[in-house]
Design goal:
Blueprint (H helix, E strand, L loop, with lengths): L22 E2 L3 H6 L19 E4 L9 H27 L6 H5 L1 E4 L5 E3 H24 L4 E3 L2 E5 L4 E5 L1 H9 L14 E4 L6 E7 L1 E2 L23 H9 L6 E4 L3 E3 L2
Parallel strand pairs: 9-11
Antiparallel strand pairs: 1-10, 2-7, 3-4, 5-8, 6-7, 8-9, 11-12
Helix pairs in contact: 2-4
Length: 257
C-alpha cells in the first residue's frame, strides 16, 4: 500500500550510552540539532511549506474536538503499527530483534560516531509512519497538520518562529546548519491552519527490543540549547499547547500524558 522507505542520509549519535541502544529512534532531529552528522542529499528533505512566520507567544490555543482528535489518533496508531511491521518485514524477516541485534553498530556518521541498527530501523520507521500519516491525515484534517515542522523558540521575548522546509534546506546546502541548533522538530503538529496555531502535538516512539515498552520522552543532551529539559515540556511551552504532547507507540497506540 505504501512504498518502501529507505534509510535516508542522516546518522545521529547516541545521547548517552545505551539511550538509543534498545530503542528505535529517528535521527532526523539529530541532523538538525547537529548538522555535522548529516551526510549526502538525503539530509535535505524536499517538503513544501508555507512562508516563515513569527509571533509572540500569547494565549491558549483552541483544543481539538473529541471526534477529530479520535480520528487523528486512530490514523497515527495505525501508521505506527504499519511502520514497525513493514520495516521489520523488509529489513529483519518480520521478526522482533534481540537486544544484541539492536545494539549492533552498522556504520559510522560524519563524526565517526557509531550508528546502531536500532537507530537505522528507527529512522526507517519514522519515515514510513510520517508518509503514512501524510496521506491519511490529508483526508481527516486537510490543511490543518504539519509533519516535522521546524521551530525556533526564544524564551526571552518569548517568541516562537516557524521555519519553512525551503529555509531549512537552504541552510543545510549553504553549510549554515549550525543555525538550526536548538530548534525543535515535533513529528506531527495538528493546528488551525497555521503551524504556529498548534492544537496538539504527537511524537512517534519505536521501542526496539520489546514492542510493549513505553519509551520515555527524550531528555535533551549535554551541549543542546535546552540541555536537561524534556521534549514534551519544551513542545508545550514553545507552542502554548492547551494539552500536553502525546507519544504514539506501535501496538500500544497513543499514550496519555
Amino acid at each position: 500500500m505504501l512504498a518502501a522507505v529507505g534509510f535516508g542520509g542522516c546518522a545521529g549519535a547516541p545521547r548517552h550510552p545505551g539511550t538509543y541502544a534498545q530503542s528505535f529512534d529517528t535521527v532526523t532531529n539529530s541532523c538538525r540539532h547537529n548538522p555535522a552528522l548529516c551526510t549526502g542529499e538525503g539530509a535535505v528533505v524536499q517538503v513544501p511549506r508555507a512562508v516563515e512566520v513569527a509571533v509572540l507567544v500569547a494565549g491558549a490555543r483552541a483544543m481539538l474536538d473529541e471526534d477529530t482528535q479520535r480520528a487523528v489518533e486512530q490514523v497515527l496508531k495505525e501508521c505506527a503499527d504499519l511502520a514497525r511491521s513493514e520495516v521489520l518485514i523488509r529489513q529483519h524477516g518480520g521478526q522482533s530483534p534481540t537486544k544484541e541485534e539492536c545494539n549492533e553498530v552498522v556504520e559510522h556518521n560524519a563524526r565517526k560516531e557509531p550508528v546502531t541498527q536500532a537507530m537505522k530501523w528507527g529512522t526507517a520507521m519514522h519515515q514510513f509512519a510520517l508518509e503514512c500519516s501524510r496521506q491519511r491525515l490529508d483526508t481527516v484534517v486537510p490543511g490543518r497538520f504539519s509533519l516535522e515542522p521546524t521551530y525556533r523558540y526564544d524564551r526571552r521575548v518569548p517568541r516562537t518562529t516557524y521555519l519553512t522546509q525551503e529555509q531549512v534546506n537552504a541552510l543545510l546546502r549553504e553549510g549554515r546548519g549550525a543555525e538550526l541548533r536548538g530548534t525543535i522538530v515535533p513529528d506531527v503538529v495538528i493546528h488551525q491552519g497555521d503551524p504556529l496555531q498548534a492544537q496538539s502535538v504527537y511524537d512517534f516512539k519505536f521501542p526496539c527490543v520489546n514492542s510493549d515498552a513505553r519509551p520515555p520522552w527524550r531528555r535533551y543532551p549535554r551541549g543542546h540549547a535546552y540541555e536537561g529539559e524534556y521534549q514534551d515540556q519544551l513542545y508545550q511551552q514553545a507552542l502554548r499547547l492547551p494539552e500536553a504532547p502525546l507519544r504514539v507507540v506501535p501496538r500500544i497506540g497513543v499514550i496519555p500524558p
